[in-house]
């Protein structure tokens, strides 16, 4: 859902229900992210790649 449809949708179903729907969606996304190993290890891998890129070669 994009922001341009959130206002009219809130007018139809009510802002409270819209927040509940958005909260449930955010909670589901959080649970899925925790259950997927690749998302849990993303930050670790990113820092390892950045460390390799910024290493200064020994002269």
Account of the 3D structure:
The model has no long low-confidence stretch (mean pLDDT 89). Helix 1 packs across helix 2. The chain has one domain (3-54). By secondary structure, it is mainly α. Helix content is 83%, strand content 0%. 0% of the residues are buried.
Concise description?
This protein is mostly helical and 59 residues long. It has helices spanning 3-13, 15-35, 37-40, 42-54.
Defining key terms:
59 residues; mainly alpha; 4 helices; elongated
How many distinct folded domains? 1
**What is the subunit organization of this protein?**
single chain
Order of helices and strands: HHHH
- Cα end-to-end separation: 54 Å
Sheet with the most strands, sense and barrel status: none
Low-confidence stretches: none
Rg, Å, rounded: 20 Å
Shape: elongated
- Structural class, by secondary structure, is mainly alpha
Beta fraction:
under 5%
The overall pLDDT, averaged over residues, is: 89
Number of DSSP helical runs: 4
Helicity level, as a percent range? Answer: over 70%
**What's the total count of β strands?**
0
């Amino acid at each position: 859902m994009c922001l341009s449809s959130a206002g009219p949708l809130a007018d139809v179903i009510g802002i409270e229900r819209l927040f509940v729907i958005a909260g449930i969606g955010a909670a589901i996304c959080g649970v899925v992210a925790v259950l997927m190993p690749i998302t849990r290890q993303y930050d670790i891998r990113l820092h390892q790649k950045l460390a390799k890129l910024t290493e200064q070669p020994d002269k």
